[in-house]
Design a protein that fits this description.
- With about 140 residues, this protein is α+β, with helices and mostly antiparallel strands.
- It has one domain: Sufe protein. Chain: A.
- It contains six helices and two strands, in the order ααββαααα.
- A two-stranded antiparallel sheet has the order 1-2.
- Strand 1 and strand 2 form a beta hairpin.
- Helix 1 packs across helix 3.
- The longest helix is centred in the last third of the chain and has 16 residues.
- The protein is globular.
- This is SufE family protein.
- It holds the Pfam family SufE.
- Belongs to the SufE family.
Length: about 140
């Protein structure tokens, strides 16, 4: 199912990833999800928006409207774009206080991504979570 903007709902993304029964299924699902993530413009891919510590180049923009957080993100790697879709599905449209109340690491653990989160990717994901929860 999609929301009015054509984006997949978080529960659907979670269900899709949890339904994966192999590393290949998870990879295909992440690549498919990566195609739903709008790309950032060259002007948005600034050093200020770049996440430090990621294996791939990752940019994250946080915007707040009416107390709710909205995110724009991109990566030079399809797999990481898929991971971004999964992460952002958990937090988009929530307030910073609500996001800070969440156990995002536990939520991510439920998404069946562990085989793709190598130590260097895990560092990048932790840096993304830090930016999401601290700004």
């Amino acid at each position: 199912m999609t929301d009015p903007l054509g984006q997949q709902r978080p529960i659907d993304i979670k269900a899709q990833l949890q339904a994966c029964r192999s590393k290949e299924d998870t990879f295909k699902t992440l690549v498919m999800l990566s195609k739903t993530q709008p790309r950032l413009t060259a002007e948005e891919k600034t050093e200020d928006n770049k996440i430090k510590g990621c294996e791939s180049a990752v940019w994250l923009i946080i915007e707040e409207k009416d107390g709710l957080r909205h995110f724009k993100a991109d990566s030079d790697a399809k797999l990481m774009r898929g991971v971004l879709v999964a992460i952002l599905s958990l937090v988009k449209g929530k307030s910073l206080a609500d996001i800070q109340q969440m156990d995002l690491k536990a939520e991510l653990a439920e998404l069946n991504l562990s085989s793709y989160l190598t130590s260097s990717r895990t560092n990048g994901v932790l840096a993304i979570l830090d930016k999401i929860t601290s700004h």
